[in-house]
Design a protein that fits this description.
Elements: H1 6-16, H2 18-39, H3 44-70, H4 77-99
Helix pairs in contact: 2-3, 3-4
Length: 101
């Protein structure tokens, strides 16, 4: 199967709209993260919890943006495989993050 051209991939990614969804979901959490990090600057344990919460927020925003962006695509085998591959990739990232906690 031939690889898609870079400009075709960019057009598809833009059409899915995952990136704006991701940043919109993450923005309010980011400001809370900065505030919590500053408030807990002296406590190592509290700071680690703030970082862990931030890591979880990033994952949740990415998963949500991916799911929302891919929910409306055609249900043919090729596209379903692509969605499954993207889901597996997100799950691997989550597993790696959990292992490092």
């Amino acid at each position: 199967m031939p690889k898609p051209k870079t400009d075709e991939l960019k057009d598809l990614l833009d059409a899915l709209g995952a990136e704006p969804r991701y940043w919109a979901a993450l923005e309010p959490t980011f400001y809370r993260f900065l505030s919590d990090l500053a408030a807990d600057a002296e406590s190592y344990v509290a700071r680690q919890q703030v970082l862990s919460d931030w890591q979880e927020a990033i994952y949740v925003a990415a998963r949500s943006a991916f799911q929302t962006s891919t929910a409306h695509i055609d249900q043919d085998a090729r596209q379903l495989r692509a969605v499954a591959q993207g889901t597996r990739h997100l799950m691997r990232i989550k597993a790696l993050c959990n292992r490092n906690d």
